[in-house]
Write a structure and sequence with these properties.
The protein has helices at about 105-110, 110-115, 130-145, 155-175, 180-195, 205-210, 215-225, 230-245, 250-260, 265-275, 280-285, 310-315; strands at about 1-10, 15-20, 30-35, 40-45, 45-50, 55-60, 65, 70-75, 85-90, 95-100, 120-125, 125. The protein is of the alpha+beta class.
């Protein structure tokens, strides 16, 4: 049975705290109890070993933990040094969520009831497909949370947007249609390109590996992906660059090299053409100092008195 939490989004959720955490040597998550508050964890790198009540979770890169209220949690094993994750605590409005136990076949039958204009649904753990989108929104939340906006609703809306994105990602994993033989073949080609991405990868290299005529490869690839092979290769390179810009402080020249660009100037030109921002502008959009978990006491109870809950939802 799967535990699915349905969250009412007719109003934005109430952001409590958030941050980006980096584990030191021999780190385990401290003991906590979620007294009415939710927690979202997005794993950037490494592994987090977490016990929630009597259940054990291993959270790897690209995993999401969406933990509803009223659970005890703590680490049960040391995480590798430099494990990183984003974390977010929030409240919903009164009676703004419910948790359901559902069989997988029932889950797929009830999609129209779970995912609506006014409600999202999330399991406790799942793999994020569109991780770049989640990372970008996560950084926006941390940036906005540290700005002195005239209304706290700014970060509440951004956090609600992240929840909608995560729910949409999960929804798509449930609605994937069976792939045809050709679609399966294209998936294999895409996986090979990802595994063999380099500065010098060309269409002919891909075609030769699969013993295909290059023109035929280009035609079938575009008919199933709506992009050419070269466009797909360039998209992978830009995705790699965006991750490095968000997750590291490496110089732009080194980012370009690690994202498989031999020419720094060409990298900057391509980046600006696709995102309307230079790499530095993209990175500096999130230059605020984020609240790190090391300066936040997770044993401090996050009750509704911690924020202006009654003022927000009852007045």
């Amino acid at each position: 049975m799967l535990k699915i939490t349905c969250i009412d989004i007719k109003e934005p959720v109430l952001h409590i705290s958030s941050g980006k955490f980096t584990a030191g040597p021999h780190w385990q998550h401290k003991q906590m109890y979620h007294d009415g508050n939710f927690e979202i964890m997005l794993i950037i790198s490494g592994t987090v070993y977490l016990q929630v009540d009597d259940h054990y979770y291993e959270l790897h890169e690209g995993d999401c933990l969406a933990l509803p209220p009223y659970h005890h949690l703590h680490g049960f094993k040391d995480s590798p040094a430099n494990t990183q994750y984003y974390w977010f605590h929030f409240f919903t409005k009164p009676n703004g969520f419910e948790t359901r136990s559902m069989a997988e076949n029932q889950l797929k039958q009830d999609l129209g009831d779970l995912f609506t204009q006014k409600q999202i649904a999330l399991p406790v753990q799942f793999k994020i497909n569109f991780i770049d989108k989640a990372y970008i929104i996560a950084n926006q939340i941390l940036d906005v949370a540290k700005n002195n906006y005239f209304t706290s609703l700014s970060v509440d809306y951004f956090l609600t947007t992240l929840l909608i994105q995560l729910s949409f990602d999960y929804y798509q994993t449930l609605t994937d249609k069976p792939t045809s033989t050709m679609e399966a073949r294209i998936d294999v080609i895409k996986s090979w390109i990802q595994a063999n991405l380099s500065e010098n990868l060309r269409v002919n290299d891909v075609a030769n590996n699969f013993e295909l005529n290059p023109h035929y490869l280009v035609r079938i690839f575009k008919s199933h992906t709506q992009m050419t092979v070269i466009q797909y290769i360039n998209e992978l390179k830009l995705d790699a660059a965006k991750k490095l810009l968000l997750k590291t402080n490496l110089p732009i020249k080194q980012v370009a090299s690690m994202a498989f660009y031999s020419d720094e100037k060409q990298f900057m030109k391509n980046f600006k053409a696709h995102l309307n921002l230079t790499p530095s502008e993209f990175r500096n959009a999130y230059q605020k100092k984020f609240l790190d978990s090391s300066s936040f006491d997770p044993e401090k109870p996050l009750t509704k008195e911690y924020v202006n809950y009654d003022e927000r939802f009852h007045h």
